[in-house]
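Long-time lurker. I teach an intro course on protein structure, and each term I like to show students one example going from raw sequence to a predicted 3D structure in token notation. This year I'd like something fresh instead of my usual example. Would anyone be willing to generate the tokens for the chain below so I can use it in lecture? Attribution to the forum is fine with me.
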Amino acid sequence: MIKAWWFNNEGENFGDAICPWILEKMTGQKIERSDTNGSLASIGSILMYNYSSPKVIWGSGAISDYHHSPMIREHKVLAVRGPKSRQRLLEEGISCPEAYGDPSLLLPYLVDDVEVEKEYEVSYLPHWVDLNLLRSNPRIANNYNIIDIRSGVHNVLSEIRKSKRVISSSLHGLIVPEAFGIPSYFIRISSRVTGKYFKFEDYYNSTNREMKCFEDIGANNLDTDNIINNYENLGMEIDLVPLVMSFPYNITNDRLKKELDI
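-- Reply from a regular --
Happy to contribute to a lecture. Here you go:
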């Protein structure tokens, strides 16, 4: 059994709930949520969380350039989400390897390898704090598929894979489509998302790109065609081998090992 820690204060938020799912698929072991010394902190913006004991950091990131954790110097850091998170650690005088990647980028190697029929030209996948803003806009709600990021890991994955394009104000609403080769578009429709751009820049920089964002705060101002025509992020480049090689447990998923030649 692997002990891991993930944020779960907001119910089954996809970016957090996917943690045990990914770890179990990688290792074939049961995953127990634990805050004990040495538990794996692997997905989400939890690097600077106020833990009660040291953790093993693999693929998680900072949420801002100002949050700080008194425990940070006690962690064992194997890999982080991106270069901005690494820079935060270096500023704290902590050694951090240049091994980058959000573990959800491994999802295409962990899910069933079957072709999924596309049902939606465009899906909106808002951060959970923005969900009601989108649903209150009839122009969006009546014409586009809106995915609730807290509707369960399997449903969110399925809805993403059924979409030709995904417009999102959620970090994992951008990462997961791109992992499956689906164009995603970053929008900022409220000021409610903690850390503003930090975690988004962290991810885009890890994939050898500058962040590109459609920022027009207020769901009523969204113009879907304008977003698609002007704000697409393509050309993702990232070597996931260093991330996978730094994983601290035995990987038993044969497809993952074969696809990444490890």
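Some talking points for your students: The longest strand covers residues 184-188. DSSP finds ten helices and ten strands in the chain.
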